[in-house]
Specification:
The protein is an alpha+beta fold. The protein has helices at about 35-45, 75, 95-100, 110-120, 135-150, 165-185, 195-200, 220-225, 230-235; strands spanning about 5-10, 15-20, 25-30, 50-55, 60-65, 70, 80, 155-160, 190, 205-210, 210-220, 240-245, 250, 255-260, 270, 275-280, 285-295, 300-305, 315-320, 330, 340. The strands form four sheets. The protein has a six-stranded mixed beta sheet, sandwiched between helices. A five-stranded antiparallel beta sheet has the order 2-1-4-5-6, with helices on one face. Strand 13 and strand 14 form a beta hairpin. Helix 4 crosses helix 5 (about 135-150).
Length: about 350
Amino acid sequence: MSIFINIKKSYKTFLLEMCFESKTNTLALLGASGSGKSMTLKCIAGILKPDSGKIIINDKVVFDSENRINLSPQRRNIGYMPQNYALFPNMSVQENIATGLHKFKLDKEEIEKQIKEIIDLLQLTGLENHKPHQLSGGQAQRVALARILVSRPDLLLLDEPFAALDDYLKTRLQMKSKEIIDKFNIPTILVTHNRDEAYLLADEIGIIDKGSLIIKKEKKELFKEPEFYSAALLTGCKNITKVIKEKNKLNLLDWGITIEAINKDCSYIGVRAHNFKVSNKNSGYEIQIIGISEEPFEKLVRFRFKNQNIDSEDVYWKINKNDTVEDVKYIEFDKKDILYLK
């Protein structure tokens, strides 16, 4: 996939200023609700018209305000799946899928052949004559995806594709969707607020905050070095403190401790909850454990440093379910696990 986007779109009290370029096969745009993720997809799909800018998909200019180019959604050849799947309520499963084939002007026999192939692939056999209201959420999603796939799009856009599904079904469908995307080799952009979903499905992840993309990296690199406060939050870092550099030390204001400074500009540092470990008086920081919550497969420990700012939030530490830490007095964390954030 090759996509270039540099657009502005003003909407009531919100301003979208989206600028990025990507050549990866699957890109996830990760952001909180109201950050501009879905608006970005609609501009790419041609459903919304940006106020200004340019969008180029695989070397084809689909929008250019300066040259008055604004291709219709049909001419962009993009498969867009909205959150509600947008199935035609009065049509059966096979009729819904068939609408994706209309542009090819195929004979009846070929249409039936392609519908059967995609129904078998997406495990929809037996549901051919069902109407959308008779389908589960997962089945409806697969029908919507089947309709898109038979249309052979140049680009697939998925808008929060798993948001309405329960966790058990969500995991199965995420794996199935990844398998299908890889099998058809369709360049894909998906938007989500779920970091695990983004990590599973995408090669590259971009963080969207307040209408702009603030960082885009290969997914492993992004989780290793999110660089920005909001990116660290969205990738799951629970522990972030403001810092001030004083000579060769960083003063962690919220936690009341200091660490050795390195040659990096930062306003915050973060430590992921699984990166703390038990220490001793000579090499660790004194803490007080506030509470321990048991999750299905691990425990979440809340603690505070000895001189922690009274107005700051508790610090979170994830441990194995069988570990016992009630009597722990000191903890530490490795320098390599510190996230330096702007």
